[in-house]
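Can anyone check this?
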Amino acid sequence: MLTKIFKIKGAYVFYILGLFILLSASLVFTKAFAATDNISGSKPIEVKIALQIDQISDVNQKAENFTIVGSLIMQWNDSRLAFDTVNCNCKEKLFDTSQFEKFTSENKVSWPRFMFYNQQGNRWIQEDIFQVFPNGNIVYYERFTLTLQAPDFNFLNYPFDKQKFDIHIVSLRYNDTFVYVIDLENMKMGGQLGEEEWNVGSYSTFVDTVTVFGAQSTNSQFTFTFNAHRHLEYYIFRIFLPLFLIITVAYATFFMKDYAKRVAFSAANLLTFVMFNFAVGSDLPRLGYLTFIDSLLVLSFVVTAVTVIANVFLKRLDFSGRPAVVSKLDNIIIWSYPLLYIFGLGVICFIYFP
């Protein structure tokens, strides 16, 4: 009986001892985590963030992405990284990324890791540096070249479309550890962006929160948005002016009295339009829907083809000896042709620019 009691008491002792060890380990882990990240319940560290866009090197309409060259600047303060200039014999400490990783690991602190959320492919970092100052201020500077996804591109009104370019930077630390604040002082859009097709307008920035990888907590996100529209000179002289001349030549054939020459000229004009369509087709984005310029080309093709059909029909009537009917139809076509084309153009404009 006594042996049995001792066995029960011994079991309770081992059970209590196990609980004590488990609680001690949990406490140690919590302290270590708090030392590495922000202390639970304390105010998150504010990270001032700024983006400087120096060049837009490419806008790929078919792949729906764009490439930029820019600089990223992040600033925050962590008193745990403060140091004495006398012991260091320096005014600041400079690190590259690998050195700073080792430095923060040795001091058991974290830093606001980030990613470009709409990044496509690899980011080529030309130069990066961490500056740590005696009071614990840290400045991170990075010069990069990066291709970004732009799934919101909408070319429906091409080439009169206005596009929005978004750059999303997401913190890989939870919102209770680091939060972004906008650094307007260092924010900049370059004056010579190098993209000749686009006229870049104003930019805007904002900070919000997102959930990354289905996590329970939220992460801070910085968004840099700029708008752009196309320079129209190229499209006016390369597409709209030649198209207007082709339609005008097609219309001019109705003023010829020789119906055989009418057919020849209108057929040649149709072939000219087909060649023109092939020439400009390589410059147009291949999309799953018709853009404004696609619809305009379709309308012009139909009108040019109808011109050939109408002239062939008039030639047949003239050949069959019905000049009065031919003359009457000629008069109707001469005034109705421009009206119908303008009406079709108006319908297209109404659809795309309501």
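Reply from J.R.: I decoded it. The mean pLDDT is 85.
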